[in-house]
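On clarity, I found the account of how folds are encoded harder to follow than it need be. Since the whole study asks how a given chain folds, the encoding of that fold should be made plain. The format is easy to grasp once an entry is in front of the reader. For illustration, here is how one protein appears when written out as sequence plus structure tokens.
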Amino acid sequence: MTHWPESFSAEGDHVSVVPLTMDHEADLRESAADGALYRLWYTTVPRPEGVADEIARRLSLREQGSMLPFAVIDRSSGRAVGMTTYMNIDAPNRRLEIGSTWYRKSVQRSPINTECKLLLLRHAFETLDCIAVEFQTHVVNHASRRAIERLGAKLDGILRAHRIMTNGTIRDTAVYSITAAEWPMVAANLELMLERVD
């Protein structure tokens, strides 16, 4: 069965975004251990020993048509340094969310996230003709919120008591989006940000 959107790969100067497979497990286990990000209670980074299960979960959601998961490859090393997805896919309305994203600690604050998001947003708006792309994060995840805002996304609002976290706390979710009308400005800004780091 073919799902919208179809699988694709995209490549930039710093990063490649490729369909996630079990072949990425070893790199992603190492990436999950880097900085022990799984200890942050307000994120959902898998423990190293849980990476295979997380890959399987994401691939299962792909089979159901609700997610398109990717491995994020650092072109300088050729290794997977994180995961991201198109999720909450709404084909009739040409909307989706870019989410469930995490990167190993050693590549954070590098050009990797900016270029990864540029590649995924470009495909969403210019190939899939999306009307909007959404981002969600825990309201207390200030680093994630700043990163989303740096992309040019605008805060749509806070979904209060939105989700029960694995530790039993209740998550308030900050919801952001970029619309098709905003995309040209956002693209120009992301390209400028990448030029400044080269």
